[in-house]
Amino acid sequence: MTHTWPAGAVTHGDIALALADNDPSRMLEPTPEQRRVIEAPPVPSLVMAGAGSGKTQTMVQRIVWLVAAQGVHPTEILGLTFTRKAAGELRERVQLALARLRSEGLVGGDEFATPEVSTYNSFANRVFSENALLIGQEPDARIVDEMTAFALMRSVVLASDDERLSSLDLQLAAITALALNVARAMRDNQLTADACDAFVAEFRRVGQLPGRGKGNTPSKPVTDAVAILEELPIFVALAERYQLEKRKRGLIEFSDQVTFAAEICAGTPAVAAELRSRHRFVILDEYQDTSVGQTRLLGTIFGDHPVLAVGDPKQSIYGWRGASPGNMRRFHRDFRTRIAPPAEEPTFQLSISWRNDARILDAANQVASRLPEADDPGVTQLGTRPGAAAGTVSLAFPETLDDEADAVATWMRDRIVGSGSGSGETRPPSGAVLLRAGKLLPLFSAALTRAGVPNRVIGLGGLLSSPEVVDLRCAMRVAHDSTAGNELLRLLVGAKYRFGLADVKVIHDISRRLANRDVTMAALADDVRASRRELATGDDEVPLQEALDFLATRIRGAARRDEPDTWLTGLSDEALRRIPRVNDLISALRRNSGLPITSFVDATISIMGLDLEVTANPDNIARVGNLDAFVEAAASFASAEPDADLGAFLDWVEIAAGEDTLAPVQEQAEPGVVQLLSIHGSKGLEWDFVAVPRSVEGEMPSSSRDGLGWIRRGAIPYELLLDAHDRPTLSWRDAESQKELADLMADLRERIRERNDDEERRLAYVAYTRARHELLITGSYWSAIHKAPRKVSVFVSELADAGIIEAPPENTLEDAPTSLAADSVAWPHQPFTEARRRRVDELSGAVARAQLDATIPDEVLDRRIELLLRERADRNTVTNIQLPARFAASKFKDLVTDPAEIAAQLRRPMPQKPFRQTRIGTMFHAWVEAHYAAPNVGGDLLGMAEIFGTEDAALGSLADASGADFAELERLQDAFLETPWPHRTPILVEQTIEFRLGDRTVVCKIDAVFEHDGRIEVVDWKTGRVPSGESARWERQLQLALYTLAYSEHTGVAPELIDAVLVYVREGEEIRVPEVTGRRELERLLTEAEAALSAANPSA
């Protein structure tokens, strides 16, 4: 039967008017669709919320309506989402709304009563830690992040004595990653090693089925499948050992928490009953991204409960990380314990896009129209908002990839540089370049830089593809691994040494010759050579490094003896000069490879001269930041895994490079800057202008890498998974011959390809719906990467057929354009253009002529030396140093008081071990955040493992905290609890907000914001001592001034309604700033800092 809520004294209109500050002109009442969601009955309900359809606002309205109109106590409402950023935003909006309604008398109670909003992982963590002893687990187990998990599995692989590992013929990093995937899949799907081994044993029998023809010839697809499945027990054994090591070391992963929490709730019904009693109403955000383990946990706890699940099947793009493809479709089955009529299984729609202009929505709907869910009557096509602008969708399809990158850069320059968004906004517009894969991000970033467009690559994946970081990684790998031939080859033929192909071939031939010699250089007997090959890896050559070392010694010996050496025959004069230099560099790198990881990264940058190279090129100054970011990544790894060696770091980087581009990012759109990131990373974000390059077959959409699905290395057979019913099946047990099974496998491959095509469509839908006003879709036929021309993407063809974009020009070339032809490429690559080469030659000639001129008087030489020394001193201080385009608010004081020092520090940061006071401050802030996140528990009662065992990787350095540090933290906690602040409810805690100040972006991480007597209080916790003197107090308030401005722009609250408060916890003293520095004065200070740098620059 249909549920009807009792009529409340508070209406939707009352709520809307209160939230609009009693201004009817700003009042936004819910739409009929939103009203149905807000008033969803107290049974499991599903909401299909399209991209940009206002789901977050509707969830907020649902919570507010339950409290104001239905009398639900705020603490009885639970909201879950995926990222801490999303949870923080939802929590902030709910608390702001409730505070506003409370001030209008529409909501009773006190300000401490707030809903619980957290991530799925944090909720599972709480359920586990509160009840771990029920299943014999330790509640204070330390949560491990990706870095620690990878390092632990790598150590398990290295320690294994399983002889089967040698048969895998895989690198250590690949084995580690595959074993980790198997371990997690087994945990998520409650699989035992026995179940996996039993399946392999059964599947092995298909190799005994009759083969082809009279000769009973085995079918290659079948024998290959058997060989692949034979490897699964190897990974399963590693997974089992990994789980034992975690238990032994007191470690736990997020997936473990989900599994253990589900086990607790299923085995102890009283725990689930208590959670249902505590959380009378539940909202599940981004439900399409939940894993089968998470839905099992939530269904066990909240079955037949008032659950509102909000999601969009068209945006289900995280299947690779465990998101179950059919969870939206199965929702009612998962959350109902009995068969119910359709009226008791409600499904609602949010089908109006409040983000996208009309033409962009047309493109998104068109590409999504062929998805399976498009035929579901419960999934409605997105419609435009009332009054939506037309918007534009454009296509650029030049001949070459380089031309495509330039077209994107020009399009962005015309819209971003010195332009408004065209939508009435006063802030600079935002832009993004979204790619299916991260490897081309540096190419498009370089094009934007050439066009003068401020840009930033987001994520580690794109960073690791930049040329300077590739060189850095190769050098580090060469230092660590003497057999790293590919990496050494990259260094040899790169711009630094520029070995020609003929010289490379000679060096390679010499390495083969050396393999056939003993230590006396005598030729090996044939039987010895055969034994060596059999006992070793089968290679018939020594490592390239060994050959270089041998040649360097021969070159130096020949020079001393002044006689020819037959081993050096065939090498060019340039190679004879460069080989000793390369060998010296490798020796220097290897001598330093025993340093701590971060120190070695910095030493490698210096030895390679990479810092000088990137700063010397004014066109690529952004590349300095790439090196800095890599140093930061190394520091994060070393902090998380202080005992890990260089090899572990390099292996982790290799794996992270591929996976990072798939992860959602925690960034916000940056006004006036074009952000470059993967489509996977863009979900949940939006920009004014978006470009989606590489819309060609094989890239967008990409080709399926899954092949036969579960018949691949490191994969669990589908039929063993908990969501097997949502995956393609292979009826291999029904096959009566190998040919029949091969045909069934071919059919499976086709169904998996269709499934991949659907996933690519969802990616395109996500990419297109990121754009508010304008969307550019690009592609190109030719690139140096592929010999044959690429075909136009099926998505482009469909959009052209629908009349949304013009048809792309046809490819008229049978062969690659001249600019890409192999016979036009100069080798080795010239590091200078012809113009720069001529200029270098001119300067070199001038130096040579000066050296020959012996008539210059000594006093003139002295004067010139003095000038040169002065110039060098000037250059070492301020030349080419600029204020950073993006900086943290905490750095602002230093920027305006000592701009040269802070700019130089940011340009080339030296990794430092965190100061003790910094570490204690970080611990205190994390504790305060946990205190406010669990108001019903009380921060003083939370265990340290629960607080610091979060998904915030930045807290990894707290592993270094000592007993004295925790004692100091306890003193700060006691002092804090004596103040009025812990008994108040914040609007937000530890919220990051970015805003533009002049032409710079300021990143503010605000400690806390409260509402009191109709005013907003922005609070900054200080664990140090109260400053003395007006100057020191003025400097302290600068950071609060930025926070005030950031919060004002973020929420629309006028700055004059915001109070700034410094709370010195240790001394229990508050400093209320009567009037913080305003925007105009802050911009003046920034301008003066820039002017100071410009005046101090000798080139000014």
User: pLDDT below 50 for ≥5 consecutive residues: which ranges?
Assistant: 421-425, 821-825, 909-914, 936-959
CATH class categorisation of the largest domain: Alpha Beta
Number of helices: 39
Quaternary form = single chain
Task: Please state the overall shape, judged from the principal axes of the Cα atoms.
Answer: globular
CATH architecture group name of the largest domain:
3-Layer(aba) Sandwich
The secondary structure category is alpha/beta
Record field, number of beta strands: 22
Write out the strand line-up for the largest beta sheet, numbering strands in chain order. Answer: 3-2-6-7-1-8
Hey, roughly how much beta strand do the residues contain? 5-15%
Distance between the termini: 79 Å
CATH domain topology of the largest domain = Rossmann fold
What radius of gyration results from the CA coordinates? 32 Å
Could you give a short account of the major beta sheet? 6 strands, parallel
InterPro entries: DNA_helicase_UvrD-like_C (IPR014017), DNA_helicase_UvrD/REP (IPR000212), P-loop_NTPase (IPR027417), PDDEXK-like_dom_sf (IPR011604), PDDEXK_AddAB-type (IPR038726), Restrct_endonuc-II-like (IPR011335), UvrD-like_ATP-bd (IPR014016)
Protein name: DNA 3'-5' helicase
Catalytic activity: Couples ATP hydrolysis with the unwinding of duplex DNA by translocating in the 3'-5' direction; ATP + H2O = ADP + phosphate + H(+)
GO molecular function: 3'-5' DNA helicase activity; ATP binding; DNA binding; exonuclease activity
